[in-house]
Write a structure and sequence with these properties.
Layout: H1 3-27, E1 40-42, E2 52-55, E3 68-71, E4 81-87, E5 92-97, E6 103-106, E7 116-121, E8 133-143, E9 146-155, E10 161-164, E11 176-179, E12 191-195
Antiparallel strand pairs: 1-12, 2-3, 4-5, 5-8, 6-7, 7-11, 8-9, 9-12, 10-11
Length: about 200
Amino acid sequence: MNLGILRTFSARLSVVATAIATFALTFAAPAPAPPVGSWIASEYVGFQPYEKCLGNAPGDYGNGVRIRLGNCSGGDWATPWTLVPVDQDRKIYRIRSSVSGPCLDARLEDIGSDGGAVQYWGCGADTQTNQQWQFDRIATGGSGTSIYGIYRLRNVYNGRCLDLRQEEIGTAHPGIQLWGCGAATQSNQLWRYGSFNGVIP
């Protein structure tokens, strides 16, 4: 075969290969993103219309304000939360209010004992472990892009779990605390985080 023809053929193959590579990069599936702006509901309290979600009184998001539960569907105390990745391989996130920006924070003054307070506080550095939560998935529900996970949320600082105060269950806005993690069936320590993009921790 003529050398000039071979060179032309090789050049055309190179152009085709480059085009294919560019097409593959352009249309490759994007990396999964963490769920954004969803409610965190207590599995103990049950499903709608009786769901209770993490939040506080509207507009009351200052440092040190205790986290409580409010009606998920009523929009009174519930607030959506965004997960900010710290270590996605270990399912560790900061949980930041999508409304006002502060983080879900375990109060350092009593973090070493059962019953420690959980509060709003301005988000700190990635090394601030009292604001880091490990999502220990127990089960998954839903289908398609509308799925949710059921989790125990462990505080990275000392491994205690986000816990619904049992003595306040049945009140309008029961409180939240840190407590030693119980069995996977202990429903006052189970939390549901939903997604509308098919991605959960």
